[in-house]
Amino acid sequence: MVPLKIFKDGRIRELSTEAFGQSIIDVCEKHRKDKRALAFAFVLYDFENPQILKILNDEIYWNALNSISGQYLSIYYIHSREDTFGKDLAGVSDHEQRGLYPIEGKNNLGAVLPMLKRYLALDEKVKNPSILFFQVEGTLISDYFLIELFEEKIEESFLELKAYVSSAVDRLKMIDPENYGNIQPIFESLKQGVQSTKFRKALFRNVQQFPVQLLISWFLGKV
Prior knowledge:
This protein is α/β, with parallel strands linked by helices. It has one domain. It is 44% helix and 15% strand. It has seven helices and five strands. Helix 1 (17-33) packs across helix 4 (112-120), helix 2 (50-56) crosses helix 5 and helix 5 (154-173) packs antiparallel against helix 6 (183-209).
């Protein structure tokens, strides 16, 4: 988990798309070289998604996601608290200290998504909250895909986020260290695992919305 803090002293500093994107790529490349990650993700949310804010500001939830992501997946998010978790990040690199690019002024978390959309040339409509899984090759983001998050209650939202992170990490754990250089096939494997979890969750949601009496009748062959 790699928090990027945007608030400091009650103000927001403007940050160019190029500087924002390049800094993330620099951290990604360092993580890959240090064998701290094989792929990457960005949690997208704003102040209309308080369940995500609660999860990321809760030390127990944060530690759980950080432990699951481990040395396989680096997860980025915008952090808005002055206290910090994961203090080990500060000693690793100047790029990873809390206070990385403190953004000051009139913007808020909502400014991050347009910045990412411009940098990634994202044409599709992005709904918050979502997880943006992406892969970095050299100085470029080579591939990405989005997973929309639907749960609104804190515990359910955490379990949803955890399920997607776990499915990504499970696929990355299957990669033989000798194949760590195969960047795109690694990401394709991650994508298959995450999309499978997305399909199961969508199916479960549809079943929940299906009228129980009609479902029973269908199983009994009375429809």
